TrEMBL record:
Keyword Hydrolase found: yes
Protein family membership: Belongs to the SIMIBI class G3E GTPase family. ArgK/MeaB subfamily.
EC nos: 3.6.5.-
Keyword tags: Hydrolase
PANTHER family hit by this protein: METHYLMALONIC ACIDURIA TYPE A PROTEIN, MITOCHONDRIAL, METHYLMALONYL-COA MUTASE
GO MF annotation terms: hydrolase activity
InterPro entries: GTPase_ArgK, P-loop_NTPase
Region Disordered: start-end pairs: 1-25
Name the UniProt record assigns to this protein: Methylmalonyl Co-A mutase-associated GTPase MeaB
Length: 362
C-alpha cells in the first residue's frame, strides 16, 4: 500500500501525459541522435585528412585525444596511414610567460605566413590548464583573423592530463596536420613548468618571446629556456616601448654570447617586434628561414628529427611502464603497505622499492 502511494507520487511519472512543448523539434532530436551514433571510420578520416579536409582532421584529433582504450587501434591505423605523408613541414615552438603576447604574436605571424602561401597549423601544449578549451576561447578572439583563414588550422590543447599524455597527443596531432597538408606547424606553450622541454623536443626551431622591462631583462629567466632558444624576440616594441626594447635586444645578445655554441651551428638571433602593430614579423620569418637553410644544408635538421623520434619512443615506453606499474591492483595495495613501512623506518626505501619491483616482474 505504502509502495503504491510512493509510486504515484514519484517524480519520474510526473510528466506522464504532458505533451512536448511546441518548440521541441523531433527532426532536430533525430539529427543529434544519429550524429552521436555516427562515428566516422578510420578510413573515412584518413581519406578526409589526405584531402586536407579540416573537419576530418579535427575529428581525427579528437580520436587521438580520446582516453578511451577502445580507440587505440583506430588511432594507430590513422597515424600509420598518415605517417608517410607527414614530415614535410617546419615545426616552430613558441614560448613566453603569460601575457607576453604569444597569442597576439601567433595571429600576426600566422597571417603573415598564410599571406606568403604557407599553410599553418597552431597547436598548444598546456598541461596546466584543466578547464578544457578555456584559454582557446580567449585565444580565438585574439586570433580573429587566423581563425577565419582558409589556410590556417587552430587546435586547443588537450588538457587535464599528464605532460607525457599531452606531449604524445601533440606529437600525433602534428603528424595528422602535416598529412593534411599543413607545412608550418606552430606549437605554443606556456612559459611555466616542464612544458618547454617537451615542446623543445618536438620542434625544429624554438622561439622565446620576451618583453622589455626596466633593464632587468635577464632576471627571472630560466637559464635552460634561454639555452634552448634559437631566437629571442622582444615583443611589444611599440609606442614608448621601442627604445627599451632595443636596449633589451642588446642585453640579450650579449647574454647569448656566453652560452656554448649550438650543435646545429646556428647562432641564436635576437630581434624586436610588435605583434599588436604587426611590425618586425618579416624579420622574424627571415631569421627562421635562414635557420632552416643552414640546418637542412648541414643535415642537422634530419639528425634532430631522428633523435626526437627515438627520444619519443623511449619516453612512451617509460610512460607506459610507469602507468602499468602504478595501476597494477596488487602494486597499489603493496605500495600503500610499503609507504607506511618506509615512513616509520621499518623498512629501507631501497629494499621496499626492490621488493615492489620484483613482485611486479615475477
Ligand atoms: N602594446 C602591445 N601590446 C601587446 C602586444 N602583443 C600583445 N599585447 C597585449 O598583451 C596582452 C597579452 O597578450 P596575449 O597575446 O594574450 O598574451 P599570451 O602570451 O598569449 O598570454 P597567455 O595566453 O595568458 O599566456 C593583450 O592585452 C595584448 O593585447 C604588442 O605587440 N604590443
Ligand atoms: Mg595566449
Amino acid at each position: 500500500m505504502a509502495m503504491k502511494q510512493l509510486e504515484s507520487k514519484s517524480a519520474l511519472s510526473e510528466k506522464e501525459g504532458i505533451p512536448q512543448p511546441e518548440s521541441f523539434s523531433q527532426s532536430a532530436l533525430e539529427k543529434i541522435v544519429t550524429n552521436r551514433k555516427h562515428q566516422p571510420s578510420a578510413e573515412d578520416l584518413i581519406t578526409g585528412i589526405l584531402k586536407g579536409d579540416k573537419v576530418a582532421l579535427s575529428r581525427a584529433i579528437t580520436v587521438v585525444e580520446s582516453t578511451n582504450p577502445a580507440h587505440t587501434s583506430k588511432v594507430n591505423d590513422i597515424i600509420h596511414a598518415c605517417l608517410p605523408h607527414a614530415n614535410n613541414s617546419i615545426r616552430i615552438g613558441i614560448t613566453g610567460v603569460p601575457g607576453v603576447g604569444k597569442s597576439t604574436f601567433i595571429e600576426a605571424f600566422g597571417t603573415y605566413l598564410t599571406s606568403i602561401g604557407k599553410k599553418v597549423a597552431v597547436l598548444t601544449v598546456d598541461p596546466s590548464s584543466t578547464i578544457s578549451h578555456g584559454s582557446i576561447l580567449g585565444d580565438k578572439t585574439r586570433m580573429e583573423e587566423l581563425v577565419k583563414d582558409e589556410n590556417a588550422f587552430i587546435r586547443p590543447a588537450a588538457s587535464g592530463e599528464t605532460l607525457g599524455g599531452v606531449a604524445r597527443k601533440t606529437r600525433e596531432t602534428i603528424i595528422l596536420c602535416e598529412a593534411a597538408g599543413f607545412d608550418t606547424i606552430i606549437i605554443e606553450t606556456v612559459g611555466v613548468g616542464q612544458s618547454e622541454t617537451a615542446v623543445h623536443s618536438m620542434v625544429d626551431f624554438f622561439l622565446l618571446l620576451k618583453i622589455s622591462g626596466a633593464g632587468d631583462e635577464l632576471q627571472g629567466i630560466k637559464r635552460g629556456i634561454m639555452e634552448m632558444a634559437d631566437s629571442i624576440v622582444i615583443n611589444k616594441a611599440d609606442g614608448d616601448n621601442v627604445a627599451k626594447a632595443k636596449l633589451a635586444k642588446t642585453e640579450f645578445n650579449r647574454a647569448l654570447h656566453l652560452f656554448p655554441a649550438k650543435s646545429s651551428g646556428w647562432i641564436p638571433q635576437v630581434t624586436t617586434c610588435s605583434a599588436y602593430e604587426k611590425t618586425g614579423i618579416d624579420t622574424i620569418w627571415k631569421i627562421i628561414s635562414d635557420y632552416f637553410e643552414l640546418v637542412k644544408a648541414n643535415h642537422y635538421f634530419d639528425q634532430k628529427r631522428q633523435d626526437q623520434n627515438q627520444f619519443w619512443m623511449l619516453e612512451t615506453i617509460n610512460e607506459q611502464l610507469k602507468s602499468n606499474f602504478y595501476n597494477n591492483p596488487e602494486i597499489v595495495k603493496l605500495l600503500e603497505e610499503n609507504k607506511l613501512a618506509v615512513a616509520s623506518n621499518k623498512k629501507s626505501p631501497f629494499l621496499a622499492a626492490l621488493e615492489l619491483l620484483s613482485s611486479y616482474f615475477k
